[in-house]
Amino acid sequence: MRGKTRKPVIAIFDVGKTNKKLFLFDEHYQIVYEKSARFLETLDEDGDPCENLESLRLSVFDSLHEIFRREEFDVKAINFTSYGASFVYIDEDGRPLAPLYNYLKEYPEALSTPLHKKYGGLEQFSLDTASPSLGSLNSGLQVYRLKNEQKEVFEKTKYALHLPQYLSFLLSGKAYSDMTSIGCHTALWDYNKHDYHQWVKDEKIDKKLAPIVDASAVFPATFPGSTFKIGVGLHDSSSALIPYLLNFHEPFILISTGTWCISINPFNDQPLTKSELESDCLFYLSFQGKHVKASRLFAGQEHEIQSKRIADHFDVTTARFKHMEINWDIVKELESKPVDVELDAFGKLDLGQYADFEIAYHALILHLIKAQVVSTKLIQAGKKTTRIFVDGGFSKNNIYMNLLAHEFPEMEVYAASMAQATAIGAALVIHEHWNQQPVPNDLIEIRFFRA
């Protein structure tokens, strides 16, 4: 009898740069188990900090053993989502051959400059690959670097796998590539030809990339006697978009807010222009392999720094800003003078001009919103979008949300809240393989802000 009552669940590993999380979701996408871990970074051969791959690998197996010991859960499937721009180089036997290099590692210009030059110059190269020039963040260039600086390791490499696909490989023993990881500013993909860029083929790097499969593909696990399915893994930004794409069918823009505020328009596939590229726009590939135009703004970081500056100046704690309601009289007064749209503009202002912390904080958010509007408008074209959803930290900020609605009077602006959108995206993409229930249509709570 006991076997009958076990709850069917999916396990999702959500591997961030700082936090590594494991979630179990039931068939209604409710979290029924959650565990979080942090690992100490280790150093690569140059002494640069990097992810501890061995700790990560062991943690995946340890966490799973712990779950399998629990009698109340019946694990039907496992999937992964993680940050992009990082490769694991494995040999014939699936063993890693090199550290998991940090995407913030300095990239030698002596390597990148001739490569860009050979394929039409930096601007053309960046436009073709929809990848602003970001050094090691263009993860394809990491493979190029390995080939040039560590020939023996490159020779021994059977496959270079992006991190989500490596984690999937640990459990399925199958090496595959997925579109969402290839599409995130890797400089590998030619968005005009919808294929690997010519440089990838000329350098024979495509031979080291595993075959591409659909994001919804699943494979049997290598554990003896196990019946659960293993997903191929997803890039986190693309994964977080999945619940929105499945829930809302009218064209929309999603502003995903955190340290970076990323405006994402899945309904704009117009080619990138030179000026968009210079303004930090890029393409992602959605889980369906479609072009998704996005623009990035370092606004969460700026908010943190400037909030602290205001708090120090007025001798209060930043907690005072947390639940502050909007004061339209203050906004009116602030808007009577021109507001600079540059992200760092507020940081250059003298706080002595503000009578109290409330006015100063309103001024900060007003500056951030002006910069945000410029960033979001870069990707607004395409099919007529009528809605903006904001998720993440700023969706809970009353002043931010009201000012955003005020700046986009022709749009419906919503704060969207959803616990763990990235992890749920990775579960939804393989829904049919593990879940007997229909996809719930109330996964995302939305709150309307009037202009």
UniProtKB/TrEMBL annotation:
Similarity comment: Belongs to the FGGY kinase family.
Q: One GO biological process from the UniProt record?
A: glycerol metabolic process
Taken from the UniProt entry, a GO cellular component term is: cytosol
Keywords assigned by UniProt, alphabetized: Kinase, Transferase
Q: List, alphabetically, the InterPro entries matched.
A: ATPase_NBD, FGGY_C_2, FGGY_N
CDD domains found in the cross-reference section: ASKHA_NBD_FGGY_NaCK-like
Q: Name one GO molecular function term.
A: glycerol kinase activity
Extract the Gene3D superfamilies matched here: 3.30.420.40
Question: Domain Carbohydrate kinase FGGY N-terminal, which positions?
Answer: 10-231
Which organism does this sequence originate in? Answer: Sphingobacterium zhuxiongii
Q: Which residues form the Carbohydrate kinase FGGY C-terminal domain?
A: 250-433
Which protein is depicted? Carbohydrate kinase
Task: Give the source's domain of life in one word.
Answer: Bacteria
